[in-house]
Amino acid sequence: MNPNLAQMLVRTARAYPDQAALYLGTEPLCTFGQLADRVARCACGLRDWLGLQAGDRVALVMKNCPQYVELLY
Hints:
With 73 residues, the chain is α+β, with helices and mostly antiparallel strands. Helices cover 51% and strands 14% of the residues. The chain has 3 helices and 2 strands. The chain has helices spanning 5-15, 32-50, 66-72; strands at 20-24, 27-31. A two-stranded antiparallel ribbon has the order 1-2. Helix 1 runs antiparallel to helix 2 (32-50). The two termini are 19 Å apart.
């Protein structure tokens, strides 16, 4: 079975927790470990605040920015 994006992020964060994951220009913003943590907290917040469940569809309407990557996962 092929992993989904979130599963791939978790796998990468476990293998390379201290490697830079996101950059803004040449400036590293966070590691894979930090990104996975932020993504998990966003997912919990969306579940708790909006009642979203796995498989629900969500549209993202925002500029290309680091937060977009967090919400995409």
